[in-house]
Design goal:
The chain is of the alpha/beta class. The protein is built from 26 helices and 27 strands. Strand 9 and strand 10 form a beta hairpin. The chain starts with a helix and ends with a strand.
């Protein structure tokens, strides 16, 4: 016992219990680093993000081109998917222009629905001879396969969370060689695999997984180079392009007991993390490497743009939803991720995190920790604080060695990581909830500033829009034998209208056939929501006019009849309830209230008054200084007890300042004053002067409407308590 007491006193005098506690904390933090829980990993990857933001990859060459199925291409050749014959023409033209390898960031999982044999069975009233001729034609898939055999094409395949079909063992796969430990146990593993049709797979020079792995916060930092899908080891699409370009038959995977170290083909070795993932060294979004698919198909691309390049075929169209977030670019088409991997590999600018990096971090932490534990008692608190201050100011390192400071730092970091984790979860929730309603830029703005959003129901003053295509029934009648053409027309009609709303900070609530419902001032606050809604409505009319001109030219060229598209818009501003609404199984971010109902009623009245844009009084009052606004009527909407003054928007400020509009507005005000004062003759006289003034007869429907009412009132006068309001008979 005496010896034990002596040993304890010696230990206390020589080392102190504080040091022992610090050693325990040091071991605990080392164990925490080995376990690497989510908050620690989040902190580390965010540090890497900061490095890339400060110094992104600088492009020294541009060996990759992206053939973009963009909005221009969709407008020209119709909605995706296109007939495989178009895709075959794309392959043929790119091959003729000198593309080294062509890769599709697309999966052709099903046979072309426009194959001739399908058309033979689908088109009614065909004679048997025509059907036989159609069935004798090669399928569109065979046409594409033939084009692929005359080129070097890599097909994209997708890893899935479940099995969708049995794997065809006869289809070709990329050859693999393995050096070291079995790497398959370290790879990312997808239970299912979605491949292209067998005829295309057999014709392809390569096959790779196009699946891009996102981190927990929805940001792409690492891309798998080699992975498993439905039990098959496969390369990524970008690495398969390198294999095809170098003429290699086999991919070499190197690994050791800690995991995969690299993946190589002839001339290229790509360092990976232990799971076979590559840290992407990102450059900024680069529009100069994009070429429109429409330009390739129509022969408007110079050979030097494509010659000697690796070509990726993908899409930047928002509607096709292949959009990713990177550490330096909030919105980047997914196909450019593959392009950036290829650029970094081909220009020697790859990033790597060596497997021994974790060991080096632990050794450095242990050495620094032991040094602090050993030296801290030798110096006073002033020296200790001074040393910590030096490391903080000069090297941005937090170095503490006493128990109180260490525990305080641990508590502080816990709060930081907890808040960070909550913030990332909230950002993921926002991106998921609002990706279908808002433009990508507004979604990212919400994700970066979630305090602007209230996800539950709340009351707000909002501006609501309803828009509808006029005469849709008669237009659809002309497409009885061409449902695909009607779908294409609706896509061409709704896309520019949607863009007009999103560009003016609007939120899409829903599509109802040919109609759109949208609103402003939620989820993001918009102090100019009435003005932005009016601007969007005018933009929509301009977009429809432009579309009608295109369609008229197309109809003239093809000899088909031309029926112009027209749109009616109703706008109203008022207090609404907005939030997530629906059931436990499905809900949408939507809005309801009397103001919403009135906006819908106003849209329905646009054809009656002869103006495509009709707005409520609150909207008109807020926007009166920036638009040509004309008072139309004082109406009582069915189901409401209070009448509403409604207005038409006839144009922007330049229209409002024109002498022609000023004269018509003054005459309309005079007519309404006489009408509401029961001076029927005075109102009719104002209408007559208006008809003589308005050479274009833009108010003819309005004049006719009031003339009919006045004639009726002359025969059957309204009651004595009539206030000038007209009750609408329909909703």
């Amino acid at each position: 016992m005496k010896r034990l007491r002596i040993l304890r006193r010696w230990f206390k005098r020589r080392f102190g219990y504080a040091r022992l506690l610090c050693v325990g904390l040091l071991i605990g933090f080392a164990a925490l680093r080995i376990a690497d829980p989510a908050p620690i990993e989040e902190f580390r990857v965010r540090t890497f993000d900061t490095f890339q933001v400060i110094e992104p990859r600088k492009k020294t060459a541009k060996p990759v081109r992206i053939v973009d199925i963009d909005e221009k291409s969709l407008a020209k050749f119709g909605q995706w998917p296109w007939p495989r014959t178009h895709v075959a023409d794309l392959v043929t033209n790119l091959t003729r222009l000198g593309a080294v390898v062509i890769a599709f960031d697309i999966v052709f999982a099903e046979p072309d629905r426009l194959n001739p044999n399908v058309a033979a069975d689908a088109i009614r009233n065909l004679d048997e001879e025509t059907k036989a001729k159609l069935r004798a034609l090669p399928s569109n898939d065979e046409v594409l396969a033939d084009a692929m055999r005359h080129s070097r094409v890599a097909l994209g395949e997708s890893g899935l969370p479940h099995v969708v079909a049995e794997l065809d063992k006869e289809l070709p796969l990329t050859g693999l060689a393995m050096l070291g430990e079995d790497p398959q146990r370290f790879m990312l593993d997808f239970p299912g695999l979605l491949r292209s049709t067998p005829v295309l797979e057999a014709a392809a020079a390569g096959r790779g997984l196009l699946t891009i792995w996102t981190e927990r916060d929805g940001i792409v930092r690492r891309v798998p180079v080699i992975m498993k899908a439905q039990g098959v080891t496969m390369p990524s699409l970008s690495f398969e392009m390198l294999r095809v370009a170098t003429g290699s038959d086999t991919i070499l995977i190197k690994s050791d007991a800690a995991g995969i170290t690299s993946v190589a083909v002839k001339g290229f070795a790509v360092p990976t993390d232990r799971h076979g993932q590559l840290w992407v060294h990102f450059a900024h979004y680069d529009p100069s490497i994009y070429v429109s698919a429409a330009d390739v198909l129509e022969g408007r691309v110079a050979p030097e743009v494509i010659a000697g390049k690796l070509v990726l075929v993908g899409t930047s169209s928002i509607g096709l939803q292949d959009v990713k977030t990177t550490p330096i670019t909030p919105v980047m088409p997914g196909v450019e991720i593959h392009a950036q991997v290829l650029e970094a590999a081909l220009t020697g600018q790859l990033l790597s995190q060596p497997i021994w990096g974790t060991v080096a971090e632990l050794v450095a932490a242990m050495l620094l920790g032991v040094a602090v534990i050993w030296l801290a008692p030798k110096f006073g608190p002033v020296t200790l604080v001074g040393t910590s201050w030096y490391f903080y100011t000069q090297h941005r390192l937090l170095i503490d060695s006493t128990y109180p400071l260490l525990s305080t730092t641990a508590i502080y970091l816990t709060l930081i990581f907890s808040g960070f984790a909550r913030e990332q979860a909230q950002r993921r929730q926002i991106r998921s909830a609002f990706g279908q309603y808002l433009s990508p830029a507004l979604v990212e703005q919400l994700a970066l500033a979630p305090e602007k959003l209230v996800l539950g129901g709340e009351e707000r003053e909002m501006t609501i829009m309803f828009s509808d295509m006029r005469g849709f029934t008669s237009i659809s009648e002309t497409y009885k034998q061409d449902p695909q053409g009607l779908t294409t027309l609706m896509n061409r009609f709704l896309t520019p209208l949607t863009n007009a709303i999103l560009d003016r900070k609007g939120t899409i609530d829903k599509y109802m056939g040919d109609a759109i419902m949208a609103f402003w001032n939620a989820p993001l606050e918009d102090k100019e929501h009435q003005v932005n809604a009016c601007e969007a409505a005018l933009d929509m009319l301009e977009q429809v006019d432009a579309l009608n001109k295109e369609r008229e030219e197309e109809a003239l060229e093809s000899g088909r009849p031309f029926i112009p598209l027209n749109v009616g818009v109703g706008l109203n501003t008022g207090t609404c309830v907005v939030g997530n609404m629906g059931s436990d199984l499905r809900f949408d971010y939507s809005v309801f209230g009397d103001s919403v109902n009135l906006a819908s009623r106003l849209e329905g009245q646009s054809k009656e008054y002869g103006f495509p844009i009709i707005v409520g009084s609150n909207t008109a009052l807020a926007a009166k200084d920036k638009f040509a606004i004309l008072e139309l009527d004082f109406i009582m909407v069915k189901g409401k007890t209070e009448p509403e003054v409604i207005y038409a928007i006839a144009g922007r400020e330049d229209t409002a300042q024109s002498g022609h509009f000023q004269r018509l507005r003054n005459l309309t005000i005079e007519m309404l004053g006489c009408y509401r004062g029961r001076d029927w003759d005075g109102a009719l006289a104002a209408i007559d002067r208006g008809r003589r003034t308005d050479d274009a007869h833009s108010l003819e429907l309005l004049y006719n409407l009031y003339e009919t009412r006045i004639r009726g009132y002359q025969k059957n006068p309204p009651p004595d308590d009539w206030n000038g309001a007209f009750a609408l008979l329909t909703k």
